[in-house]
Amino acid sequence: MSTHKPTAPARTYAAYSAPLWRRVLLTRETAVIALTAAVILYSIVNVPNFDGPLTLKFLLQDIAPILLIALPMTLVIITGEIDLSVASIMGLSSVLLGVLHENGMSVPAAALLALLAGLACGALNGFLIAYVGLPSLAVTIGTLALFRGIAVGLLGTKAVTDFTEKWSDVATGTIGDSRIPLVIIPFAVLAVAFVVLLHFSTFGRGVYDIGLNDEAAHFTGVDVARTKFILFVLSGVVSAFAGIYFTLRFGSARGDNATGYELQVIAAVLLGGVSIFGGRGRLHGVLAGVVLIGVISSALRLESVTVNVTNIIVGCLLVASVILPSVLASTSSRLPRKAATPPESRPTQNAASAGV
């Protein structure tokens, strides 16, 4: 009667991965959320009037355009691309809204045409990047100047300010008696849609695959060109919507509206844990990054700190968000690692049948 030593069960991929609590808590997204909470608590305790009744309202109104544009920008950067033209699309949609309304068109009709213009701008970016094969950095730098030039050319140096009070109240109003602005409602709808699209759909898995290796993603069945084209179209439409909100909130359509917003959006996305090299990132970390930048800006403004200092701090955060992941990865690769013990080998079928 043959006997042999029982073999150990084969280890699966999950057996080699870190525990669930470690994969959830020890992440860049969790660190950004914790840092944001710490900055909010510090500001409440140490910054005068930060806990005032209007602070939340103005804070959310200030960061609403960045929150909106950060949603499609996250997906764009995960694919390894970038869109620097979002602020100029905001300015162009603002000018179109003002010019069309000044010539007798209703605000809803003018806003619809402004959204279509944003769609066209995004489609132009997407076509040149996805189908022509040009680098996104060069394309969007060029279209940044193009769209901004068109906006300034249409309106010149003047501003359109004859918006009715009804539409201004829509942009600056709150939900009931709360301090939460009405713009948070469309943002919440878009946030849910983008979370489902990125994290719970095959389209979202394709976005991550493209960021990791677009050539490999193509051979696994992902339509790389179509995916990138759709993302840039979404970026253009959402940027135009943010430009419409920006115009109605301040009651002024100008060609230089939202200048420099693209850097704040990119800084928030990278600070929220999205890799500039693509293939990594989650939306909850990005939203925390936007709130963090907004809280810092609001607290510094209440402390009478100039905008230039705020921009310096945001720039430092942007540089740190790009450098730190590379430094941490380099440090961890140099640390000594415990050699893994190979799993016990199974006896061959011949040896098992012969018996020991």
Mean pLDDT: 85
**CA-to-CA gap between the ends?**
9 Å
Strand fraction: under 5%
Low-confidence stretches: 343-356
Record field, number of beta strands: 0
User: Secondary-structure element sequence?
Assistant: HHHHHHHHHHHHHHHH
Determine the structural class based on helices, strands and strand pairing.
Answer: mainly alpha
Count of helical segments?
16
What is the C-level CATH assignment? Mainly Alpha
Seen as an oligomer or otherwise, the chain set is single chain
Percent helix, as a range, is: 55-70%
Give the domain tally: 1
Largest sheet: none
Q: Shape, please?
A: globular
CATH fold label: ABC transporter involved in vitamin B12 uptake, BtuC
CATH-derived architecture? Orthogonal Bundle
In short:
With 356 residues, the protein is mostly helical. It is built from 16 helices and no strands. Helix 4 (55-78) runs antiparallel to helix 12, helix 4 runs antiparallel to helix 14 and helix 5 (86-102) packs antiparallel against helix 6 (107-131).
